[in-house]
Amino acid sequence: LGSAAVTCPPVPAAVDIQPACLGLYCGRTVLSVNGSLETYGDCGVCPRGQRTDDNKICRECVESPDRYDWLYLGFMAMLPLVLHWFFIEWYSGKKSSSALFQHVTALLECSVAAVVTLLVSDPVGSLYIRSCKVKKLSDWYTMLYNPSPDYITTVHCTHEAVYPLYTIVFIYYAFCLVLMMLLRPLLVKKIACGLGKSDRFKSIYAALYFFPVLTVLQAVGGGLLYYAFPYIILVLSLVTLAVYMSASEVE
Question: What is the C-alpha to C-alpha distance for residues 109 and 101, in angstroms, rounded to an integer?
Fold first, then answer.
């Protein structure tokens, strides 16, 4: 009699089973990997550049920003440039031929700041950046979702779940401000001779006001801006077009 072949079911990979973490963004860091066995730490905050997966394990962000993410970063990068141009035109106007040079300088400052920001981001020295995928609005406000198991002790699990879309904007604004303070005063002092001493630096003073405003706007409303910026662009385009056409008719 022939003996039938006996097949054994596949052996599942070994897993260090532990209870799930509380809260939306608390996770366990991977301490060591031994073959198919992963050893996890205690529940807590994920390190920078990581976020929790569906099993509440901290995983490194290895994805690339999608097209919408790049459009959002472009929108946030254009805000200081547009404000620079507005205040340069507002305070220079037709009184000085230096406005064009200041416009070009502002463009140069923001462009260099954007390139340097990408170079210092992970991976350092490359224009490529790795990111975590944005899944929902609460990903931008993890500080609001720290669990309190006994309603007394709070487990702090605040981390950048949308890495690096939140902090990279602050880094960019910092470089913009530094480059402006290094380049613009020298340029304005040399070429803005048609303006009075009190007027030639007003566009720089304006930037010292709107950069803190932009920083607070990103800190508080970054998540809202991420989802609303296409509509903001559309509304602002219609408003500015209407204002321009009405001003042209008046003239």
Answer: 12
pLDDT, tens only, 224-239: 999 999 999 999 999 9
In a domain, 135, yes or no: no
Residues 14 and 28 in one domain: yes
Residue-wise pLDDT for 5-51, tens only, equals 555 555 444 445 567 788 899 999 998 888 788 888 888 899 999 99
Query: 239 Cβ partners below 8 Å, 6+ apart?
Result: none
Bond into 10 cis (ω within 30):
no
The DSSP bridge partners found for residue 40 are: 30
Residue 31 belongs to what domain range?
Answer: 10-60+142-163
Looking from the CA of 188 toward its CB, the CA atoms found within 13 Å total: 23
48 and 94 inside one domain: no
Give the residue from 217, 219, 184 showing the smallest Cα distance to 201.
184
- Give counts: helices (H), strands (E), the chain: 4, 4
Q: Are residues 124 and 197 in the same domain?
A: yes
**Do 152 and 194 have their domain in common?**
no
Instruction: Specify whether 53 is located in the same domain as 118.
Output: no
CA-CA-CA-CA torsion sign (124, 182, 215, 78): negative
